[in-house]
Amino acid sequence: MKETPADTAQAFVLALVLHLALFAVLFIGLWWTRSATPAAAGAISAELMDASQLSSAMRRTLQRQPEPLPVEEPEPEPLPEPLPEPVEQQPKPQDFIPVPDEVSQDAVTEQPTPTPAEEKKLQEAKRRQEQVDLTEQARQEAVQRNMRMVEQDIQRQKQLEDIRRRKAAAAREAALAEQRLAQLANARASNAAEAAAQNDATASGANGVDDGLKARYAAALQAAILAKWTRPDTVPIGAACRLSIRQLPGGQVMGVEVSSPCSYDEQGRRSIEAAVLKAQPLPYAGFESVFSRNLNLNFRAEDR
């Protein structure tokens, strides 16, 4: 059976109590012996007398030697009975363990009983190990939380990237559709402008006007306006727009408006109107025969 620190302490306390009890018994015996000793006789007063003054009877009495009295010896004191030795408490019967104990009892009994200091060190080491285990568990939980957060961030980034790709694809499709519509509108406007030009040429030829001079006049107006115009990026090259110009002889512009057909957006329309005003006086010399106060010009977008 393994001796525990509690058993050691209990044995030490019982031994101390036994010694104290023996010391108390010895002290009581000594005290009782002293108290039983007869007290000393009281003081005796005497007077010296001459033997001749005594009577004959007293002298005979003095001459007789008294027989010694028997001295009573005191009975020896009984020794105190020894205290019974402390009976070691028997441990409670151990419950039946269904699983056999794999630890060798011989090895257990051979191990020295740890001292209180060693026991305290073992407890401190156990507490430190438990604290280390708790710290390691908390660290692992923190690592797992961080991994879950990283995975969630990666998933969120993938979703955002997918949304951005879809938006970019939709924007490209919308831009392509808008570009196709603009090209279709430009083609329709160009066809309408060409048809109007042919109609004007036909009407001029019918009125006896020189078609070649009228074409050169239109080209001169186109070049003059183009020299003062900065084409916006929203107006593609080759896009046509019909201009209605009011002018005076000599080429002074009184007013200009964009009329149909015209495929330019609002910015393009304002820019071409400003270019007509900057280009005045418009070409006039040499084109007097084809000059018109109310002029319709089919302008085509080109780079300078």
UniProtKB/TrEMBL annotation:
Residues 117-134 have a biased composition (Basic and acidic residues). It holds the Pfam family TonB_2. The chain crosses the membrane at residues 12-32. Keywords: Coiled coil, Membrane, Transmembrane, Transmembrane helix. It comes from the Bacteria. Residues 56-134 are annotated as: Disordered. SUPFAM superfamilies: TolA/TonB C-terminal domain (SSF74653). Residues 140-187 form a coiled coil. This is TonB C-terminal domain-containing protein. The lineage of its organism: Bacteria, Pseudomonadati, Pseudomonadota, Gammaproteobacteria, Lysobacterales.
